[in-house]
Automatic annotation (TrEMBL):
The lineage of its organism: Bacteria, Pseudomonadati, Bacteroidota, Flavobacteriia, Flavobacteriales. Residues 36-471 form the Helicase HerA-like C-terminal domain. It holds the Pfam family HerA_C. PANTHER family: SLR6007 PROTEIN (PTHR30121:SF6), UNCHARACTERIZED PROTEIN YJGR-RELATED (PTHR30121). Gene3D superfamilies: P-loop containing nucleotide triphosphate hydrolases. It comes from the Bacteria. This is Helicase HerA-like C-terminal domain-containing protein. Coiled coil: none annotated. Residues 451-464 have a biased composition (Basic and acidic residues). Residues 451-474 are annotated as: Disordered. It comes from Myroides indicus. Signal peptide: none annotated. Residues 465-474 have a biased composition (Polar residues).
Length: 507
């Protein structure tokens, strides 16, 4: 096989009708080839992808390169930053000798540039606060985040139903705890008459789990204002897509919280985005670093739900990219749906490693130019085996790609740079205040006060008036009490079950 035939095949494989991004240059026989640009068509970015490789091989920098190129095309991204090493993208990088040589060999000019960034958080870290209400979460995901068994999950579903019927908004954990306490004490006969018995042992266990979740910072995540998915799709005044970085460094040891949060987010994105027209480019690209955390310990049901949503979300123009050390970390049902594959070096220390290398090389298109299974272990830092989907959805020829260098800084931001971004963010102004409108907690507390006072033989009328005065002062914070049944139906479980039903009908 000669260089001429390689070039011919390569050009055929990596030239498209529509727009594309360039992620690097081809390498053959240890040589970086000039003017052999590895291009990925925007049209198939929503067909998802995998970025894999041993530690330190360049996965995170590859996400940075992809994010920068997408942002430059006006496509916003969301990065799940578990290691906290992504923020540098906000500032221009600096050229060093390594970058200079690499880019001149590819014949690709190097520019440095900073990108519009939003820093977000679901926990105590500084950033735009992502929140969801308990009712948006829905009973199934809420039970999962609490790690409940089937009986306990049944009680959770019952409480959601009760609150829905009684128009009691479940906004935060406080609401849920209060309702549970009410139903095991004063409200016991009421719920048992209408909905059946609930065991005190189970409700005790649920309360303990909720307290545990609060101690892990879960109370920061539940509540209002709940995050509007449309705010992930922003484009700045220069036409660059926003790079939304969700700071998740303190969630590594809480895989359940992380995976449930992810599934809820994907369900919300799916339900709120319209079907995509023919724009020929994605609406949003989501990168999930350390993706094994989502799949570890995931139940069969959760895996099925993730698989289904990954399959369906594509039609909304959303691409999901999983980043992990080993492709075997990703379940086969999900792996089979990933169009772009960027495989950095793998190490062959153990028999298990060798098996993983064999199985991932078998998943690549066959090539006369490379010995795939040998090359996987020999790739240098910032080099990867790449195959994408062309505009017709057919895999492009497998190529060893020397990744271009990120335009942004390859190191993290300083604390003052981080504060500067957060202080100047429109979104932090919108979301970084919590409010506590009248919901289950306040309604039930008022009800209990009334009960107490009636028992003390106080005139009931007066008490009712004073409690409504209290409500009035709560509401005077500027929020009218809007309670519609739709608020409750929006729960992620509702969305998921709808998706799953529709999907099985389509089959
Ligand atoms: N495309 C690139 N251009 C220039 N340098 C790169 C590139 N990719 C990787 N590097 C160099 O390699 C180092 C490690 O890369 P990176 O942090 O992306 O690895 P990783 O695979 O994400 O590692 P880990 O598994 O530990 O998260 C970077 O700090 C950088 O110096
Ligand atoms: Mg990394």
């Amino acid at each position: 096989m000669t260089l001429e035939t390689f070039t011919e095949d390569f050009n055929k494989g990596y030239t498209y009708k529509g727009d594309y991004i360039t992620i690097g240059g081809a390498k053959l026989n240890d040589e970086i080839l000039a003017n052999h640009f590895v291009n990925i068509p925007l049209k198939t970015i929503n067909r998802h992808g995998l970025i894999a490789g041993a530690t330190g091989t360049g996965k995170t920098k590859t996400i940075q390169v992809l994010s920068e190129q997408l942002s430059s095309k006006g496509i916003p991204v969301l990065m799940m930053d578990i290691k906290g090493d992504f923020s540098g993208i906000a500032q221009p990088g600096s050229e060093n000798d390594f970058i200079k040589t690499r880019h001149s060999q590819m014949n690709l000019p190097y520019h440095s540039n900073g990108f519009p960034v939003e820093l977000m958080t679901i926990s105590v870290q500084n950033g735009v606060r992502l929140r969801a209400t308990t009712s948006e979460f829905g009973p199934i995901l809420f039970s999962r985040i609490l790690d409940l068994n089937e009986t306990q999950t049944g009680i959770i579903s019952l409480i959601f139903k009760y609150c829905d019927d009684k128009k009691l908004p479940l906004l935060d954990l406080k609401d849920f705890k209060k309702t549970l306490q009410y139903l095991t004490n004063e409200g016991r006969s009421e719920i048992e008459a209408e909905y059946g018995r609930i065991s005190t042992a189970s409700t005790g266990a649920i309360i303990r789990k909720i307290i545990e979740l609060e101690q892990q910072g879960g109370d920061l995540f539940f509540g209002e204002p709940s995050f509007d998915i449309a705010d992930l799709m922003r484009i700045d005044e220069k036409g660059f897509g926003y790079v939304n970085i969700l700071r998740l460094t303190d969630i590594q040891d809480k895989p359940k919280l992380f995976s449930t949060f992810m599934l809820n987010l994907l369900a919300q994105v799916y339900s709120q985005m319209p079907e995509q027209g023919d724009s020929g480019q994605p609406e949003l690209v989501i990168f999930i670093d350390e993706a094994h955390l989502i799949f570890n310990e995931a139940s069969k049901t959760l895996l099925n739900q993730i698989e289904t949503i990954v399959k369906l979300i594509r039609s909304k123009g959303i691409g999901i990219y999983f980043i992990t050390q080993n492709p075997t970390d990703i379940p086969n049902g999900v792996l089979a749906q990933l169009g772009l594959k960027i495989q950095h070096a793998l190490r062959a220390f153990t028999e298990k490693d060798r098996k993983a290398i064999k199985s991932s090389s078998e998943n690549f298109p066959s090539t006369p130019y490379y010995k795939t299974n040998e090359i996987i272990t020999q790739l240098g830092t910032g080099e990867a085996l790449v195959t994408a989907l062309n505009e017709k959805g057919i895999p492009t020829p497998l190529v060893v790609c020397t990744m271009r260098a990120p335009m942004g800084r390859m190191d993290i931001l300083s604390d003052s740079e981080i504060n500067h971004i957060i202080e100047h963010s429109k979104l932090s102004k919108k979301y970084n205040h919590s409010f506590d409108r009248e919901s289950a907690y306040e309604i039930l507390t008022a009800k209990l006060e009334r009960l107490e006072e009636t028992q003390e033989n106080k005139p009931q009328k007066e008490t009712a008036k004073s409690s409504s005065k209290n409500q009035g002062s709560d509401l005077s914070k500027g929020f009218l009490k809007v309670v519609t049944s739709a608020t409750f139906i929006r729960g992620a479980f509702g969305i998921l079950s709808k998706i799953i039903n529709n999907n099985s009908k389509k089959k």
